[in-house]
Amino acid sequence: MNTRSASQRKTPASHYVLMFIFLAYMLIPILATYLFSVAVRWDRTILPEGYTLEWYQTGFDSAYFSITLRNSLIVSVASVLVSLLIVVPTVYWVHTRLQQAKPLLDLLMILPFGIPGVVLALALVQVYNVPPIARSPYLLVCATVIYSMPFMYRAISNAIEAIDAHTLTEAAQSLGAGLGPILTRVIIPNIFPGILSGSLLVFATVFAEFTLAKLITGAGFKTFPLLLVEFTRKNGSVAAALSVISFTIAWAASMLILWVSRSGKTARQEHAPTH
């Protein structure tokens, strides 16, 4: 009994140690980047010798800053919307009508992880080398949708597996609902957390994607990661400032999605019938 009690007392301490190591591993590089982005000079010292916002101002003054930021946001949002339009109906149909096709779909969703971005980009450029698709943002959105689809698929698939889609569908059909109302009024509200998780993963992945944007659109359509890499070759401090901006945008999007998810959950609980 004493041995068991002692082990139970030691377990929480080990959990705290592991959590501290994990947080340090994740946060120290981010904090170092933040400090480097405002450091006047940082050479073999624990802390910078001074602080300045000059590197942020240099990044803001770049002729391509607002253009590349806008392009990245447009491509990221478009990729999220296209992924949702493709994945949500497909996963719902497979789970409710074509369950024998689910293993094949799971296999197909693994392929983007095994195909390098360079190969995917060059293949799409060669196959769709016809105007107005060739070297266009439309082809880039198609490529990013393929590249990030496993993130959206896994989140949606797990969310649908967590609910009784068959019973919900049969109940809606018994009330005369068609496929459209079933998806928009029954299934989507119940898998909304999965939709938000998948959307966040796709947005963050596409916003930071460099290889596809570089090889598909070339110099005619610059995204934010391309500008960041350009400054990496010129000025590391400005590149750090742009990295902080990119991370802050991803963090703000995460907080917004979490807030929307929490607000929707609270609203559903308030309007839920009481027995």
List keywords for this structure.
275 residues, mainly alpha, MetI-like fold, globular
Q: Whole-number average pLDDT? A: 86
* Uncertain segments: 4-8
The name of the CATH architecture is Orthogonal Bundle
> Mind describing the biggest β-sheet?
none
- The total strand number stands at 0
- Structural class per helix/strand content? mainly alpha
Q: Characterize the overall form.
A: globular
Radius of gyration: 23 Å
Output the CATH class name: Mainly Alpha
CATH superfamily assignment? MetI-like
Q: Count of helical segments?
A: 13
Report the order of strands and helices.
Answer: HHHHHHHHHHHHH
CATH topology: MetI-like fold
Termini separation comes to 45 Å
Q: How many domains, as an integer?
A: 1
Summarize the SSE layout with pairings.
Elements (H helix, E strand, L loop, with lengths): L1 H37 L15 H8 L3 H32 L5 H7 L2 H4 L2 H11 L9 H25 L3 H10 L4 H12 L1 H16 L3 H7 L6 H11 L1 H36 L4
Summed up:
By secondary structure, the chain is mainly alpha-helical. Helix content is 79%, strand content 0%.
Protein model, in words:
It is a single chain. The chain has about 280 residues and is an all-alpha fold. The protein has a single domain, classed as MetI-like fold, CATH 1.10.3720.10. Helix content is about 80%, strand content about 0%. It contains 13 helices and no strands. The protein has helices at about 1-40, 55-60, 65-95, 100-110, 110-115, 115-125, 135-160, 165-175, 180-190, 190-205, 210-215, 225-235, 235-270. The longest helix is centred in the N-terminal third of the chain and has 37 residues, at about 1-40. The chain is globular and about 70 Å long. The two termini are about 45 Å apart. The relative contact order is 0.12.
